[in-house]
Amino acid sequence: MRSKILQLLICISGLLLSSVQAQEPMTPQEPLRFEGYPGAPEIKVVPRKDKLVFYPCMMCHAAMEPNPEIRQLNTPHNSEVKHGRGRIWCLSCHDLKDRNHLHTLLGEPVDFNDAYQVCGGCHANRQKDWTFGAHGKRVANWQGPRTLYNCTHCHNPHDPTIKPRAPSPAPHVRAGLKRVQGLPHEDTPSWMKRQEQAGQ
Amino acid sequence: MTMDSDPKGKDYKSALARRNFLRGIGMGAVTTVATVAQPAWGGETFQDAFADFFQKDYRRMSAEEIDAALGRIERRAKRRYGVDIDCVNTPPQEGVVFGYAINISRCRGYRDCVHACVKENNLGRDSQVQYIRVLELNDGDFNLEHSDHYYDPETVPVEGKHYLPVQCMQCDDPPCVKACPVEATWMEPDGIVVVDYDWCIGCRYCMAACPYWARHFNWTTPEIPAEEINTKTHYLGNRPRPRGVVEKCHFCVQRTRKGRQPACMEACPTGARIFGNLLDPDSEIRYVLANKQVFRLKEELGTDPKFWYFSD
User: Which of A140, A154, A169 lies at the smallest CB-CB distance from B261?
Assistant: First the structure.
């Protein structure tokens, strides 16, 4: 009796095993590599290196011992990295040994002209939108080859938030009319008034 | 809005001047008017004036007649502004229908698009006509009647406000076209609603019909400094226009039919503006329509705008 149960168990486990094996073949595979987004259009990117003041970085760093320690940096480097608010620091993007390059999350070197590849490591959704044209800015034409501005063209990678600035001049108020103050839009919204009342 | 009641305004002054003038004649004084006299035919040759008068609707003109009209437009601009402009008649591209999308989470109210448009499209600098209005709204409010496009703070964006640029929606079922009694406005095969400024009678019915306040009337002859005139012009686009006609955004027909971006899109520093061919499944605009939650303004009116908004 016991041997029959044992046989049955072996049978069932064998079946289970074979079904698992059918889903995941045991043959070793190449590790997954990011090859871009499927169906993405061909793009060119406006180069950035010619706009970097201190590039090539190895001019100085070739003679310096690499120091991986997290510490306060001084000029010519940014003393404060606002990007990530303390979750990342220089070497999260810059290569420790080859300062002329950035690196991906896997440690592959990335040219400064291709900085968007580094940004996409964390901001994959944005990078996808940028590749397909829903984020970022295309240069000059809507038709023909696509040239895009790099992420770092608009965003300072050390402090990526865009700062407020002065607007261009307001339109004329029509002749004979005056701009009326106290429009509903200048009024406090009703729900905010409730909040104020609740606060009192 | 309140009327500025100025009893001694321009009309009053001109009435006074007329009275003085008449009095001068009555007293037998010698008045020299040679400097203010209009040259014959409004400064045109008799031939040009004659041809202008009998110029047909754009859609009824033959290729030769359009070429002749383009020549007259160039000569008129030379007389008015002293500038050699190049007026062309680029036809719509096959298999192209233009669409526009604006990412309102990117728009920060800089108004750079407004001024790029004014320069590109030879809009009068004093005529108070601007094709784009950037509306400022309270956070949590999307009532367009609560919006303000005269906002002028030190810096934008202002905390607690958001911004919504509005221009011609290039409706696919345009109410303005239906309203025009002389068929001076129509939709081109590439989806752009255009105006024949020489055929427009200035009745402004289309302005009343447009639910987006996208059409504008030239009350004054557009004044543009000669050095700021954009010389690359199109018959249906940014050619210098007369006083007393209706005009509107035409998706920069002089640029976009040649594959260039509209001026507002090129000027936008935030990349909020996305423009492209709706018939091309690989275009940016189609990606936006397929992957973002988009909406259109006053969609319930059934005008079918080719102008979308989204936020992300």
Answer: A140
Search chain B and give the residue with CA nearest A41.
Answer: B282
DSSP 8-state code for residue A84 = T
Q: Which amino acid is at B206?
A: C
A101-156 pLDDT, tens digit per residue, is 999 999 999 999 999 999 999 999 999 999 999 999 999 999 999 999 999 999 99
- Which of B106, B110, B139 shows the shortest C-beta gap to A165? B110
Q: Note the pLDDT tens digit of each residue in A177-187.
A: 888 776 666 67
Whole-prediction pTM: 0.83
Terminal C-alpha separation, chain B: 35
Residues of chain A neighbouring B137 (CB-CB closer than 8 A): 185
The residues on A that touch B, with CB distances below 8 Å, are 41, 129, 132-138, 140-144, 149, 154, 162, 164-180, 183-186, 189, 191
Partner-chain contact B271 A175, CB within 8 Å? no
- pLDDT > 90 in chain A, percent: 56
Q: List CB contacts (< 8 A) between B114 and chain A.
A: 168, 171
Structural domains present in chain B: 98-310 (3.30.70.20)
